[in-house]
Amino acid sequence: MVKISININDRAYSEEVEDNALLVELLRDKLGLTGTHVGCDTSQCGACVIHIDGNSVKSCTVLAAQVNGKDLTTVEGLASEGKLHPIQKSFQNNHALQCGFCTPGLVMSAVDLLKKNSSPSEDDIREWFEGHICRCTGYKNIIKAVQEAIT
Amino acid sequence: MYNFRYHKAETIETARSLIEQSDDPKILAGGHTLIPTLKQRLAQPSDIIDISSIDELKMITVGDGFITIGALCTHSDISNSPDIKKNITGLADLAKQIGDPQVRHKGTIGGSVANADPAADYPAAVLALDGEIITSTENHKATNFFVDMFETSLDSDEIITGIRVKIPKSSTYKKFRNPASGYAMVGVFMARYEDDVKIAVTGASSSAYRMLDLESSLKSNFNNDIMADLAIDITNFNDDIHASAKYRGTILKVLLEEAILELK
Q1: Cα separation of B227 and B107, whole Å?
Q2: In this complex, do B3 and A20 lie within 8 Å of one another by their Cβ atoms?
Q3: Chain-chain contact of B48 with A128 (C-beta, under 8 angstroms)
Q4: Is the ipTM of this complex over 0.90?
Q5: How many CB pairs under 8 A join A and B?
Q6: What is the assigned CATH class of domain A86-150?
Q7: pTM for the structure as a whole
Q8: Ranges of CATH 3.30.465.10 domains, chain B
Q9: Is 3.30.780.10 the CATH classification of the domain at B1-53?
Q10: Whole-angstrom distance, CA of residue B79 vs CA of residue B49
Q11: Averaged pLDDT in 10-residue chunks for chain B of 264 residues
Q12: Residues B36, A68: C-beta atoms closer than 8 Å
């Protein structure tokens, strides 16, 4: 077992994790933060994207032990005081989700994109989502949602 | 995933002594190849030694015609580095073509070079930029480093700490991506120096390699006319479900011509 101290959504956690536990397993199974999803488990689909020290990464391909001392944000950390984050709101406005399985990961990546590039082109947005798979909406509305959040 | 013991090494020295104490250790940098490999049970190390928090391996330094890139620099660090964008455009472009943005936030150059995947992108750049692989024990010339598929001249207790490349006058990376995986079916890195041209190919065969004959022809006459009579030797080319050896040969010729036209 490995002892780790982490910050998740501005709350401090001290946990003991199995040496081979994945970060996404810690989040979902141990801490109950089930907003982060597991889709493919092979870093292809993007359903598990969270932020580690401000960068969007795939939490199915990180060991829990690796994030000792780091700052994490999951989709649960976006809304504040009962109000949705602007990206969440624009996903809602634009029907950018249907079954919703891929949505937490896409939202987390979109937040990271707009932090790094405040006026991305459609190509920039599509390129940024290359590592995400959505099987319902066909991406058009997802792109629209991000574009709405730019302005 | 099989069980293993996890260790965090805060220094290279600690990592080295952990290697000595372990039966079958593996070094963990970004983990974006190693962790999938562990999940698929293609590897069963007894100990995982995590070097990802060693900050001194995260620097990019420019000096006397060379750039040294710390082993833990991520693909995103490299593609966004102003020093690399300014001095080695081809390398910044190459890093931006690896995986996807979220993968690029974790995967590292040291990990990729150590893994020596035959379809990885960096080996072509490291070879064409007259690179050296700096390790915990010695410096390897890139030309002696990539031995075969997933095989390098690294010793089992050796850790890559950085990659040193020579700044060219101009450079470019041309890649034909596998549409599903994004890996290079064929990738060509071309670098022009004052009196020299260097070209390396990845994805085509079991390991990245230099095209010495074409280099010397282009050195005397840097012109795409040369391509008309160029015969690509496909004897050792990969021939698999993704592409036949012949198809790879054809792609290589097209990419070489594109690279020459760009750098002309």
Answers
A1: 35
A2: yes
A3: no
A4: yes
A5: 73
A6: mainly alpha
A7: 0.96
A8: 56-264
A9: no
A10: 27
A11: 95 97 97 96 96 97 97 98 98 97 98 97 98 97 96 95 98 95 95 97 97 95 90 95 96 97 96
A12: no
